[in-house]
Design a protein that fits this description.
By secondary structure, this protein is an all-alpha fold. The protein is about 70% helix and about 0% strand. The protein has one domain: Hypothetical protein af1432 (Orthogonal Bundle). Helix 3 packs antiparallel against helix 7 and helix 12 packs across helix 13.
Length: about 240
Amino acid sequence: MTDLEQQVFTQVRAIIANEEQVIGRRGILIPLKKAIIADGDIRNVIDIVATDPALAAHLLWRSNNALSPSVQPNRSLKDALVRLGQVNIYRYAFSFYLKERLDELPQPYRKLVQGYWRLTESVAIESVDSLHQMQGVQIDADEVQTLALFSVFGQIIALTAFAYLNAEAEQCFPLCIIKTLIDTQQQTLTVEAFESLGLDDELQNEFMVAHNLRQTRDPHSPGLVLRRVLSQRGLLLNPL
């Protein structure tokens, strides 16, 4: 690593460690997280989500996207949230507000992260479809879908942090530096992003399984479903 790359790497990691700088004070994400941690009462969670109509509509859409074609769709926010459970609710809410934040980035970073985001959406669709075709497994489709939405999380967060770094710098660093860091330090940046941004341990664990960085004997692991899709697309951090 060159001195300049080390400098950028250190500064990008410092930005990633600041949750508010990365995702901002987005809507009801903070009170939602506090409600889940405090008592886990789903009624309180429903009340908080309902205060943001855009998020509520998004969660209803996401929950129905993950359903098997043979299952009746959720018709109310309450039904959707009760079925999702608090962990999936927070994961979906986080991804929703993260996407809002990404859409505010200046060019060329917005175009680059939107490309990554389209990739995650495509991976999520393929992963859920793959799950529905499997027989004899007991895997929550929403866990597969939420996990897939974080499949290139490190790249997205690293590029976002680099955009903020350049926005504050007197002289912009060339884009090729963050590309090199993403190529060579992706695992480190991803793990630090998961830890700094307060996402649940199970999500990080299944992400490691999905990318073949950790093994599991659980045949009902969402990470194993995602691993097959990532392998076929050549996206594994640790190729098979």
